[in-house]
Design goal:
With 179 residues, the protein is α+β, with helices and mostly antiparallel strands. It folds into 2 domains: 2-77, Ubiquitin-like (UB roll); 86-175, DNA polymerase, domain 1. It is 28% helix and 20% strand. The protein is built from 5 helices and 7 strands. The protein has helices at 23-30, 86-94, 103-116, 122-128, 140-151; strands spanning 2-8, 11-17, 49-52, 55-58, 71-73, 154-158, 164-168. Strand 3 and strand 4 (55-58) form a beta hairpin. 35% of the residues are buried.
Length: 179
């Protein structure tokens, strides 16, 4: 058994784990965070994607001991105070959820992209979700949802008195001024 300490969705989690326990097993079985799914168990489908120190990883291929001391973000960490994140809301609004099995992994892959590049090109979006398989949507609704969020990223700017203010960036004015 190995003693590990992870920061999962902003909370410190300490546990004793066997050497062969995957991060996915730890999240699902020990922490009851069942958003990440085991679709294939060999890292091919992306259904178990979580962020490890801000980078998307397939949790079925990462050992829990390898995540010791690192920050883990799961789909359960996307919502704030019971409110869906802009990315989650965009998936719902775009009809990009269909059966929902791939959705948590897809959202986490998109989140990883948006963390490193808030305004990705279509090619970068496609590349970011290339490891996530979806059998229901045909991907167009997923791509649309990610594009919407990428076009509405809030960027800090300096106000007149030198204070931080937020400016909503928008490439698509079809929302009538609503975020």
């Amino acid at each position: 058994m190995y003693e590990i300490e992870l920061h999962v969705n902003g909370h410190v989690e300490r546990a004793s784990v066997p050497a062969g326990m995957t991060l996915l097993e730890f999240l699902r079985d020990r922490l009851a965070l069942t958003g990440a799914k085991e679709g294939c168990g060999i890292g091919e489908c992306g259904s178990c994607t979580v962020l490890l120190d801000g980078k998307p990883v397939t949790a079925c291929l990462v050992l829990a001991v390898e995540a010791d001391g690192l920050d883990v973000r799961t789909i359960e960490g996307e919502a704030t105070d019971g409110e869906l994140s802009a990315l989650q809301r965009a998936f719902v609004d775009a009809g990009a959820v269909q059966c929902g099995f791939c959705t948590p992994g897809m959202i986490m892959s998109a989140r990883g992209l948006l963390l490193r590049n808030p305004h990705p090109s279509d090619e970068e979006i496609v590349e970011a979700i290339a490891g996530n398989l979806c059998r229901c949507t045909g991907y167009e609704a997923i791509l649309h949802a990610i594009r919407v969020v990428a076009q509405q990223q809030v960027e800090p700017r300096t106000g007149e008195a030198g204070t931080k203010t937020a400016r909503l960036l928008r490439n698509d004015q079809s929302t009538g001024g609503r975020p």
